[in-house]
Write the structure tokens for this entry.
Amino acid sequence: MTGRPFGTLLVANRGEIAIRVMRTARAMGLRTVAVYSEADRQAPHVAYADAAVLIGPTVATESYLSVPAILQAAADTGAEAIHPGYGFLSERAEFARAVVDAGLVFVGPSGDVMERMGRKDHAREIAIASGVPVVPEFVPGASDVSFPVLVKAAAGGGGKGMRIVHDAADLDAAIAAAKREAASAFGDDTILIEKYVARGRHIEVQVMGDDHGNVLHFYERDCSTQRRHQKVLEEAPAPTISAAMRTLLTESSVALSKHVGYVNAGTVEFLVDDVADEAYFLEMNTRLQVEHPVTEAITGLDLVELQLKVAMGERLPLTQDDVTVTGHAIEARVYAEDAFNGFLPQAGTAELVRWSPRARNDVALVSGQVVSSSYDPMLGKVIAHGPDRAAARRQLVGALDGTTILGLTTNVGFVRALAASPAFRDCEIDTAWLDRNPDEITPSGARVAAVFAVWAIADHEIGLRPGHPFGTADGWRLSGPAAPATIGLVVDGEETRWTASWKRVVGPYGDVPTRLVSREDGFLTLEIEGRIREAAVRVRPREVDVVFLGNTFTFLRPDPFAPGAGSGPGDGSVLSPMPGTVLAVDVAVGDTVVAGQRLGVVEAMKMELALTAPFDGAVTAVGASVGGQVQLKQEIFTVAVVEPESSIVEPAPAVVEPAETSGDAQ
């Protein structure tokens, strides 16, 4: 038995999970300690804690991933226990052992169990020994490989180090890419090759064990709504499995956990083949999961409280019969990413943030906060609970409608549209659905957002109000009727003309009755065609931003722009599609390239993106170097068409000073 009482808890993580753990710890009367990097000096989790310790620079390997720094912070603050959160060090056996060796309590399984179950290859062997069905595995180079296959990292998770391969000719490249990504994210490039189930469901079972030999399950979650193996929406209980399948999954999870002597929180993950109605063990996550709130919602239990009590050496205070399910819960993950542009990671300042009170929000983002590309792009989660799935889904959509993040591109509009889609409503989404249907989910609300933009511009520049007609600053003309406020706006790439007053907006969509309901702190509430609508609006000299239904719409105002200003498609400029670090530069000035040829690679938040030549030509400029940090839309390469018998001027390449990479932060 390793658990014992403690009074001060250090959370060795950041963001929303640090706040989530500290919230329960405070409720239990514990003193809380946060750790932070230079980049997180003003982060919400730092302000929330009773004490906070700077543990290093922005680069994660020297701060959040530095075991000596975290142990020193515990010693300096008198912490007696460490909770690892999830990500970072939560599944590293050496960290768990180091905490115990330092005389502290580790809130999680032992290092030995973590080592056995935290790696997919070792856990697979244990599952086989326990009689749990596993996904068929293949050996690289063997003749019996049956495609498609999934190449995945043996260590870690979160979709990192995973590649789907449909053809033997692509296998070697996929293995190399997965190894490189796994080594960067987890410090281990071991990979597995398994059968890929194209239409499967990702079902996982929450378990909890104590030091007294008790192991309970808290039913299952469906995490099938994924893109590129990264979960997007999660729900509990699983809406499509049979009672027999639920029994198989839950009982297998408890048996497996007892077999390895599992203590504290863990999750056993399965792939359920919809066609064959078969279940395969995937892995065990030896930590608290991101999606644990949906389990808490349907069971009414605080999983972090149970974690802490188990870590204090207590018995689980309930039996399996005491664990019941009430209603349905759905969680949406909120990421700093451009979901409608390849899910590219984003960075910037969240100028205005408001989370809806209609749902539980496990978040760590406030107005004015700077979000960098140094760490995982997840900003938080929105969790809705209702008496049934339909009610929970409506509640989630409503909560996302009322969630506003202005100044930073996020996926709020995407997850809102996804949760509202017929496919999610009808439980048609499997693990590969989003990858098979990349254009199925589109931004919604553009028409209403344009009306908001026009009304806001007119109000900003003229001052619309009831009783105040169209027109000049004072709204009146001595010589005649008021002149309408004429506004130019670029909508769907076309210049459009509008007129606006305090009671209507007239433009390409016709005469739209529009009335002000209220305005405050950057938010406008309008009655548009008889419906009350709310949006966040920011009017700037050349454009106006509108956040509506979770989507940020930026409308250009054409007047200040000269025709042809700026670089457009086909001009040969290759811009960085995301802020990040340059991993590779494959060409030099003067090199001849063909359309689609890789010029270099940019990485951010563990996502690699190849930059390719837009057409046949020659490289005339290289604006970055390996290890250098680049900004969103920064020009990295320039390609020019080579005319017959023409020469190319070779300008000196712009040099970007190398910046520290993000290490293997999660």
